Amino acid sequence: METTGTVQNDKTLERYGLKNVTVNWNLSPEELQKITVEKGMGKETANGTLAINTGKFTGRSPQDRFIVKDDYTADKVWWGKTNKAVSPENFDKLKNEIVKYLSGKEIYARDGYVCADPEYRTNIRTVTELPWSNMFVYNMFLRPSEKELENFKEDWLILCAPGYECPDPKAHGIRQGNFSILNFTQKIALVGGSAYTGEMKKGIFSALNLILPTERNVLPMHCSANVGKKGDTAIFFGLSGTGKTTLSADPDRKLIGDDEHGWTDDNTIFNFEGGCYAKVIDLTEEKEPDIFRAVKPGAILENIVLKDNGEPDYMNSSITQNTRVSYPIHHIDNIQETLYADNPKNIFFLTCDAFGVLPPVSKLTPGQAAYHFISGYTAKVAGTEAGITEPVPSFSACFGEPFMPLHPTVYAEMLSKKMTEAGVNVWLINTGWSAGPYGVGSRIKLKYTRAMITAILNGELDNVDYEQNFIFGLFMPKYCPGVPTEILDPMNTWLQKGAYVGKAIQLAHSFHLNFEKFASQASEQIIEGGPLIDEHHHLHEHF
């Protein structure tokens, strides 16, 4: 067996069944970039950043994600549309196929780890068919020192073979030729048929989202986090397009991480990752200075169209809307070096409400916090697509349903308990519309949203008066520094109060309908945290 790059003792892949492979161990990003370009698998942009194309799949394939159903997972996992089962036998068949496919090839192996808090460190060995997949792992996972590599023993193994497609999916219990499978007993993440790098990242984080709460009493969270000069931590939950990355990048605060965190029993918040994987569609230096400046040698651009002069055309979505960049976190200047910090003081749930009916800022009770966490609401704007101009409500449990193997109420109960114990304030921030829905009203100005968050972080909303929204039950501050008072109650911004009420009831009803599937396992406190009103209630008493 031939090995190149950094070589340590006892580094053999034969115990995984891989035979006659040429292994490139722990190559530097520079070496991996050079190989990628030489093999014609990628290009360099004008400033020397690697740009690659992930081929057929430019995003995750959620319908092709599986968990092996065995003694470990059978009674733990919330089986269904999100978490689909595959048998141990079918997993073994697919693993053997991938091992056979990779044997005899030049492959790339890397040792890294996840979970920045040393107490929860989890070692990951990754074997990839492609050099740039390996470079992605270098960027996204945490990077051991040379000394740590000497006696490295993995907790989990990733086998990633984009070139292997299962010829007979039905016989293997899967839907089509590509698949991403977690086996918690063997501790293997298997990726076949897709070169989209996010499958590896999300595979490992889905595994942590089951192991940490059930074995270590750690709440895993799909969120960003930062910390202020006084050591006060803030957490930001939010689905795509709500401003999670933008609002957590604060020049006055240090970034802990932008996507995946754990909240421990020892009252710490730690980053799972060693890098960032950011969307770059319509990226400009003005809008996202941190991300824009992070696109430099060492980063990987995915599915970007390059201009004739070699510069990325961030406005061009002809390959996909889901254009991305991965980079190690040290490409950002203002980071918390340890990547962990103390208990949060404030938690923000970000939603982009295109109906224009939710308050721009409201303070949540523990029951409301759990309810809105389980709901994970935002709205998608269809725009002109097929002539649809109406907003569409979108719910993703715990603001990250595709990656949550347990029932959402498990995470919500943990969050409620931790919030109560730590005395955390939880806020719902609407970064969407005001004075009417999409197409009528206007998007709440970013400077107002930033002013609300700054006021909260400075404790300036601790002692102001609040009033309750009669439809959603949310507590709205009557005053916030730097924000026009009239926008704090959304009904005030609508020309027709009746139109506001009608639209608000429509959204409240969507919340109720969505929550029905969780209600049987939710506590009374959580259920009461939802909107006060649905279409069955009468409104005359409010007018």
Q: Give the number of DSSP strands.
A: 31
Strand order of the largest sheet: 1-2-7-8-9-11-10-5-6
Mean pLDDT: 93
Alpha carbon gyration radius: 24 Å
- The best one-word shape is globular
Beta-strand fraction estimate: 25-35%
The main pleated sheet reads as: 9 strands, mixed
Distance between the termini: 80 Å
| Estimated helix fraction | 25-40%
* Residue runs with pLDDT of under 50 for 5 or more positions: 383-388, 535-543
> What is the number of helices?
13
- Alpha-beta content class: alpha/beta
Keywords:
543 residues; alpha/beta; nine-stranded mixed sheet; 13 helices
Topology:
Blueprint: E1 2-5, E2 22-25, H1 29-38, E3 42-44, E4 50-52, E5 65-68, E6 84-86, H2 88-102, E7 106-114, E8 122-128, H3 131-140, H4 146-150, E9 156-161, E10 179-183, E11 188-192, H5 198-215, E12 219-227, E13 233-238, H6 244-248, E14 254-257, E15 260-263, E16 268-271, E17 275-279, H7 289-294, E18 300-302, E19 305-306, E20 312-313, E21 324-328, E22 340-342, E23 344-351, E24 361-364, H8 366-375, E25 377-381, E26 391-395, H9 408-422, E27 425-430, E28 433-434, E29 442-443, H10 446-457, E30 466-468, E31 475-477, H11 490-493, H12 497-519, H13 524-527
Parallel strand pairs: 1-2, 2-7, 4-18, 5-6, 5-10, 8-9, 9-11, 13-23, 23-27
Antiparallel strand pairs: 3-4, 7-8, 10-11, 12-13, 12-14, 12-15, 15-16, 16-22, 17-21, 18-21, 19-20, 24-27, 25-26, 28-29, 30-31
Helix pairs in contact: 1-3, 8-9
